[in-house]
Amino acid sequence: MTSWLLGTSILLIHLLGIVSAIMALMSSRTSQGAVAWIISLLTFPYVALPAYWFFGRPRFYGYVSARGQRDTVLRRVLVRYRANVQPYVAPSTNADIQAVEQLAMMPLTHGNQATLLIDGPATFESLFDGIDRAEQYALVQFFIVRNDALGQRLKHHLQRAARRGVRVYFLYDEVGSRKLADSYLNDLISDGVAVSAFRSSRGFKHRFQLNFRNHRKVTVIDGKEGWIGGFNVGVEYLGENPRHGPWRDTHLKLEGPSVLGLQEAFWEDWHWATDEVISLNWMADTSSSATDHHVVIVPSGPADRQDTASLLVQQVIHSAKQRLWVTSPYFVPDQGVQDALRLAAMRGVDVRVMIPERPDHLLVFLSAFSFLPDMLRAGVKIYRYLPGFLHQKVMLVDNEAATVGTVNLDNRSFRLNFEITAFIPSRDFATSVEAMLEKDFAHCRRVTIDEINQRPVWMKVVSRAAYLMAPVQ
Fold first, then answer.
1. What is the pLDDT of residues 115-164, one digit of tens each?
2. CA end-to-end span of the chain, whole Å?
3. CA distances from residue 236 to 170, 231, 244, 364 in whole angstroms, order as listed
4. List of residues 6+ apart from 276 with CB closer than 8 A
5. Are 117 and 229 in contact (CB under 8 A)?
6. 460 catalytic, yes or no?
7. Which of 269, 307, 334, 398 is catalytic?
């Protein structure tokens, strides 16, 4: 009897391995990923099966199905939003901008004001002042929230807003904020703040989807002011953690019709998390916009039919004619982005990539060494930021456009995380980004090919092994 059960179990595991291999063949986003999963599932199903079901899912299927289920309820609101924003749509004949609009499934709008917020003090002063100005509602979403001095300040402002009658919605990622104390959340709830975690594994049907994260950082006040960028909530983001030293990051404040794009992204996330359809203001507001920046908001994530974030980065690279400056704390791009960067450098574009000198994720740091030689030989200039940890996610294209958002140049941001980016094809905004990045480059050292080649053999082997894990880092 025991041998029969053992044999049946072994047969069942191998059958599940075959079924999962077929699923990987039909759904993996890259041929390399499909081959790796198929070989593993057929050869070592005892190990590969749980790994595939926890980490191999290519799409956030629950979010996709939820979109379909809520179409009848929420589409009416979206139709009204699109109608209200129509007077501020800026039709463009520029094919590069049109491509970004198609990726975003949101329009380019005018009548916006985009203000760079450089480093923590400026960012959180602006954000907290915005919460204090809220009259109707405040939507607040972060990937990481800590129960430290900065987290307490955020809680205080949210509680104060709720006490004066503002509807406050607070959304955090269940994995990124896994250490957030229940007492922190209960204090918010007791003052009337609506609180929810974003759980990718919500419900029995989606229990295996643990590898997806909501990496967005979005704040919206009354549908009129919005914030996105690299900052989470913790004292290390103010440079107060000795391990990281000074923290270099960039956030963005938006005013005008583009804020409704941020609001739509939060609204969808909140509905997934809670099944609640919240009533918000969908009338575009330009009363406080002192400038006329053009903006496209680009939400991206594993529920998209395409790899929106990766395609956005590739589109930005291909559009560059004289200059492409990129900053990212994690630099393990997929092959498409690597090829695009090399080709841009080969056609004479000044391609610069700024990454940290000090790593905070060892595997990501080691992985980069496996492909940096090809980058350097093609003419891509790699810079390492010296004063502290670099966390900003910014791209500058020629003198014409810039992006600020949450997307890192790695597979997790491209395919596994929910992210959001502001694409701003406005020359004066690009000029302000140029001035900011020039100061950053002044605090960098340039990486040389000799430095990479002189690594010991053991480190080259470790780097290649680390790079094999890039799809799930």
1. 999 999 999 999 999 999 999 999 999 999 999 999 999 999 999 999 99
2. 43
3. 21, 10, 7, 20
4. 270
5. yes
6. no
7. 398
Scan for tokens 């694409």, then name that residue: 423
304 an active-site residue? no
In 3D space, the residue among 428, 422, 370 whose CA is nearest the CA of residue 400 turns out to be: 428
Pull the structure tokens for residue 190: 């007791």
DSSP 8-state secondary structure symbol assigned to residue 290: -
Q: Of the listed 119, 173, 222, 304, which one is catalytic?
A: 222
Decide if 15 contacts 31 (C-beta within 8 A): no
Tokens 């990045």 — which residue?
437
Q: Are 394 and 408 in contact (CB under 8 A)?
A: no
Q: Which of 110, 155, 157, 215 is catalytic?
A: 215
Q: What is the pLDDT of residues 376-428, one digit of tens each?
A: 999 999 999 999 999 999 999 999 999 999 999 998 899 889 999 999 999 99
Active-site residue identified among 293, 391, 410, 440: 391
Beta strands at 401-405 and 394-397: parallel, antiparallel or unpaired: antiparallel
Catalytic residue among 110, 157, 206, 217: 217
Residue 222 falls in the annotated catalytic set = yes
Give this prediction's pTM: 0.87
